[in-house]
Amino acid sequence: MKFISTRGSAPALSFEGALLAALAGDGGLFMPEVWPQLKPDEIAALAGLDYADAAYRVMRPYLEGDPCLADLEDVLSEAYEGFHHPAVAPLSQIGPNSFVLELFHGPTLAFKDLAMQVVSRFMNRALRRRGQRATVVGATSGDTGAAAIEAFRGLDAIDVFILHPEGRVSDVQRRQMTTATEPNIHNIAVQGTFDDCQAIVKALFGDQELNARLGLTGINSINFARILAQIGYYFTSAVTLGAPYRPVAFTVPTGNFGDIFAGYAARAMGLPVQRLVIATNLNDSLPRAFASGTYEPHGVIATASPSMDIQLASNFERLLFELAGRDASRVRSLMEDLRRQGSFQLSQGEFGQLREIFSAHSAGEDVTEMTIRGVFEETGMVVDPHTAVGIAASQQEAALGTTPMVVLSTAHPAKFPDAVKRAIGIAPAQPERLTLKLGSEERCTVLPADFGTVADFIVARAASPLTGAEA
């Protein structure tokens, strides 16, 4: 399996190559050259397997012929042994044909753990195999950074620099990042928005001299390995509800479009996904695009669901590649329009394809709070604001008939105690592992939203990407 760029002018790489490069040299995102297919009997055979075993069967086709394939079984076993639920990603029912997929049982209480625990182990093994070091740089709107730091802390081949928007993540999310004491971990609070952080990270990768000097690699969902490690729970939850003999719909709280693109990938592999519903908060660039065909990000609005406070969804480029029939020149044209004029217009054919598979809905702050309260009163379940946005969006889908709807619950409510308490009058119970974390001393550097300043900070603190001879 080779991985190709959405913009068409970078060389195709192996899985290991795409894993370590993260972003293609032409600025595009890596995609598999073909979508591997799972036959109905192969999907049905996932029923009853341990989560790691099911994930192995889903991921293996992407790694055929790659050095990482020999690592896959051990990587998955190690990644999920520390989760705090035996099912790793259990389903809970909240209504007739309505389910919540709990993705918050990992070490940082967020869905990012399911991928980050895998990606970190793949990267460290690949670098040691090559005799190299790497510098991981990532932008976070809250959960990615904590999951990355937890997964990469103390690894001997990797230095980690995480950018988050100062004052725009929850107190719990911030402390999960800034209390790491390992010398390979560096936190940067950027005086700006998540989109500013993301722009700086992309510019770092775009600087070829700096990229080579530091051995840069990325752990945001621009890295296809992150997407790949998220496909598994679409399969496991759907099989639990009757797939492949019954279609399933999913609603996904969406910021950077990575998690829901994993659902698209599962569908492309043969999973009978009837509908993928995009749920956003007031940062509604995607619902507006789905209503009009024009993608035009606005300024970021701070909300009670900060991990979704994103207007410029990087992974949307992967979907554009698919909608355009994998025509890289069309993707380049659209992305150039976005760069020059701040928007682009989908063709009638692209827009039609989009609406065949996806729906998109946004939820304001009042609706989010009412949904937290309503779910608690009706079921006794406490959900975080991101999950509440997803549940509110799922309730806008009225034409699914008997198809079960699965809402991805992306974070534990204890990560957002203030928002939950406003909604239901009591703070959510705090897991012991989180209580211990929040009592630690913080380490973080505040920097302006300036590429040069951030780059200088990283250069001054990153170890050499190569060990011994030029590897």
Automatic annotation (TrEMBL):
UniProt cross-references to Pfam families, sorted A to Z: PALP, THR4_C, Thr_synth_N
Domain Tryptophan synthase beta chain-like PALP: 99-332
Keyword rRNA processing: no
GO annotation terms (biological process): threonine biosynthetic process
Positions bearing N6-(pyridoxal phosphate)lysine: 112
Record pathway: Amino-acid biosynthesis; L-threonine biosynthesis; L-threonine from L-aspartate: step 5/5
Record field: catalytic activity: O-phospho-L-homoserine + H2O = L-threonine + phosphate
SUPFAM superfamilies: Tryptophan synthase beta subunit-like PLP-dependent enzymes
Highest rank taxon of the organism: Bacteria
Listed EC numbers: 4.2.3.1
Residue ranges of domain Threonine synthase N-terminal in the record: 2-80
Cofactor(s) it depends on: pyridoxal 5'-phosphate
Key words of the record: Amino-acid biosynthesis, Lyase, Pyridoxal phosphate, Threonine biosynthesis
Enzyme category, top tier: lyase
UniProt GO molecular function: pyridoxal phosphate binding; threonine synthase activity
Family label: Belongs to the threonine synthase family.
This protein's name: Threonine synthase
Native source organism of the sequence: Methyloceanibacter methanicus
